[in-house]
Amino acid sequence: MGGENKRRLPRIERAKILDAYRAGPEAVVSLFEYLQDTLLGIIEEHEVRIQELEQRGKQDSHNSSKPPSSDPPAARSYIKREKSKRRPGGQPGHEGSTLQRSASPDRVVVHRAIRCRCGQSLRQQAAEGHEKRQVFEIPRVQLQITEHQAEIKRCPACQRLARGQFPPEVKRAVQYGANLRSYVIYLKDYALLPYERLRQLMQDLFGVRLSVGTLVGIEQECAQGLKDTVELIRGQIATAAVGHFDETGLRVQGKLSWLHSASTRATTYYRVHSRRGRQAIDAMGILGTFAGVAVHDGWTCYGSYGERHGLCNAHHLRELTFQWEEGKQRWAQLLARELRRWKRLVDRAKEQGRDHLSPTTVKTIQWWYEYLLRMGMRANPPPSGAQPRRGRRKRGKAGSLVDRLWENRAHVLRFVHDFQVPFDNNLAERDLRMMKVQQKISGTFRSWEGADAFATVRSYISTIRKRRASVMEAIASIFTGQPLLPAVP
């Protein structure tokens, strides 16, 4: 046995063994029974551990919460979906996006007919018509320098000097304009270009040489101008009827930190923190007073806030898929199928303009849900043996999944009872997806100030995109001191 087992299995001294021998057969039998129970407990724990490791090796993105990027080359890196009855390509009634001719072109270039194919000159002939073709092009952008001059005049009455007023946005003797700074923020915090590549792009496209320090300063200035606006966004989420919450790892100064997100269909709020749990969630200042339905992936820490939750069933489907494909758990296959069917039932009701299912339908769904979980309980009974000194008995992944789905059955089926609550937490996952792309591109934030600035600016840009407004116009408004925040569409 390994060193760990030697420490856990008590060593019996030779003298005590001899004492048991002298005491008679019953003492020897008791000693052997004690050793047998101890060894069986160790073996059982090792079997559970081996099973967990084997199952972990069979997990990929289609049957667990692992991202597709972690899949090995031979893995099935897709989620099984039911076949659609639609044909591939555009569907009937779909509006195309073909480039359309403009009725008012900015410039017209006439190509004259000079000579006929027979050799006759056509220079003096009048044109009877034109064949027209249009080219859509972006003109080359060049840096434009505007000098603002404020007149200085002397008053003939009092002889004092008076000076004209500069526009509010012209604050320094030499500075970059709002449009140029908007390009920097768009490319840095929306297109996710690293500082060095952004510096090269600004020089190649616009002929502007910006140092990395200047780029950092522009981002910090933008974040500072958004403080009040992003605080307003945070307040709108805190009072929403349904909020989506999630978190993901983020490296700051080379150390693992956490990016927390809170969002709705029309707003997004990000916060970077060194912790993942309650300390970070309290620092966000949303869930502590949140009275709506909190949609999340079932992480235990979220469950301690409020009483109304909606759990991500996309996570559950992947876990159920794993239990059926690898564990041959029939109940898992049936529950996954029913969850998808209930989702289609709710989606169809929404398309028909209804805001709830009939009470009979809801009761039927609840009955089937509990029936299938009881089937799972029978297939995964609690382990036998002595109760461990600390904690609960290990149930294995299948047993733990059954217990979790049973304890949270009201939260799992929240989408059936409340049509405002979605089937999954994909909205929050989409809001975090591009943040992971930023980490893959840049690796780490060199300072907490840079991470906080990025989270602030990205909160604003994501909110603007959700409200279907122009991101460039919104960013430009920040540098004029009046950030736009359109109403929810």
Our Rg estimate from Cα atoms comes to: 33 Å
In what range is the share of β-strand residues?
Answer: 5-15%
By DSSP, the count of extended strands is 7
Helical fraction: 40-55%
Describe this structure in words.
- With 489 residues, the protein is α/β, with parallel strands linked by helices.
- Among the domains are: 1-40, no CATH class; 151-277 and 447-489, no CATH class.
- The chain contains 18 helices and seven strands.
- It has helices at 3-8, 14-23, 25-57, 178-190, 195-206, 212-225, 227-238, 278-284, 300-303, 313-325, 330-351, 359-379, 396-407, 409-412, 414-417, 426-442, 448-466, 471-478, and strands at residues 152-154, 161-163, 242-252, 255-263, 268-273, 293-296, 309-311.
- A five-stranded mixed sheet has the order 5-4-3-6-7, with helices on both faces.
- Strand 1 (152-154) and strand 2 (161-163) form a beta hairpin.
- Helix 11 runs antiparallel to helix 12 (359-379).
Keywords, please?
489 residues, alpha/beta, 5-stranded mixed β-sheet, two-stranded antiparallel ribbon, 47% helix, 8% strand, disordered N terminus
SSE blueprint:
Blueprint: H1 3-8, H2 14-23, H3 25-57, E1 152-154, E2 161-163, H4 178-190, H5 195-206, H6 212-225, H7 227-238, E3 242-252, E4 255-263, E5 268-273, H8 278-284, E6 293-296, H9 300-303, E7 309-311, H10 313-325, H11 330-351, H12 359-379, H13 396-407, H14 409-412, H15 414-417, H16 426-442, H17 448-466, H18 471-478
Parallel strand pairs: 3-6, 6-7
Antiparallel strand pairs: 1-2, 3-4, 4-5
Helix pairs in contact: 2-3, 4-6, 4-18, 6-17, 7-17, 10-11, 11-12, 12-13
